[in-house]
Amino acid sequence: MRILITNDDGINAPGLKTLEAIAAELAGPEGEVWVVAPAFEQSGVGHCISYANPTMISELAPRRWAAEGSPADCVLAGLHDILPARPDLVLSGVNRGNNAGENVMYSGTIGGAMEGALQGVKSIALSQFLGPRNVTMDDPFESAAAHGAQVIRRLLDHAPWGEGEDYRLFYNVNFPPIPAAETKDIVIARQGRRQTAGFAMEGQVSPTGRRFLWVRGSEQAVDTGPGTDVTANLEGHISITPMRADLTAHDVLSDLEAAL
């Protein structure tokens, strides 16, 4: 198996090392794992591509490249310039922090997997929820490291992938904020929505008198209701959410047509 991996935390991120180990286990001794990851952190860039600017790439080691661009740029670089042939699988992550609920809309990790799916390759995003019970562990990614390969194998062996559809399926996997030994089985969940203020801006004046704005996050440990990804993670489960890049509100089409 040939696997392309990327992330949004950057080429030196510890979560990428976790994903490299997962990918190596999946690929096996006869397989190939290719890393094409951002040279610098790209958290929050979503599905951004560097359409108006060139992307500089550098080979750091065999099958290991850094790109001065977004996760989606990295997937495009891997598919169209770096890899000798198309991969069988694109993996994006393991993100430091959850990409559940509304976080999905901002996530570069999701953007990397989405681009893989748009390019017709089976793609999975993986993220590690952080909380009081794992953030100070020697390995905060322990749950993802222990269970990641098995989860991906189950998806590859049993999940639909939407071949032939305009917008292929990809999968969003979040591991709970607890030790690996206490991690519960998979829950198939819809994307939740935390009923909090969400992201905001906070102003600050520098010593030189210039004003800067910082993006401020919100509380993450918020129950989002039964059947949702955030709640499944907070209850100790691995969540899997099937996704597509199609943003059409299909449930509204007929009502809107009737109304207009």
Describe the 3D structure.
Keywords: Cytoplasm, Hydrolase, Metal-binding, Nucleotide-binding. Its EC number is 3.1.3.5. A divalent metal cation binds at residues 8-9, 43, 95. It is found in: Cytoplasm. It comes from Celeribacter persicus. This protein has 260 residues and is α/β, with parallel strands linked by helices. It has one domain: Survival protein SurE-like phosphatase/nucleotidase (Stationary-phase Survival Protein Sure Homolog, Chain: A), CATH 3.40.1210.10. The protein is 26% helix and 25% strand. It has six helices and eleven strands. It has helices spanning 14-27, 71-82, 108-118, 142-158, 229-234, 253-259; strands at residues 2-6, 32-38, 57-61, 64-67, 89-96, 123-128, 170-175, 184-188, 200-205, 211-216, 237-243. The strands form two sheets. The protein has a nine-stranded mixed sheet, sandwiched between helices. Helix 4 (142-158) links the parallel strand 6 (123-128) and strand 7. Helix 1 runs parallel beside helix 4 (142-158). The radius of gyration is 19 Å and the shape is globular. The chain starts with a strand and ends with a helix. The mean pLDDT is 98.
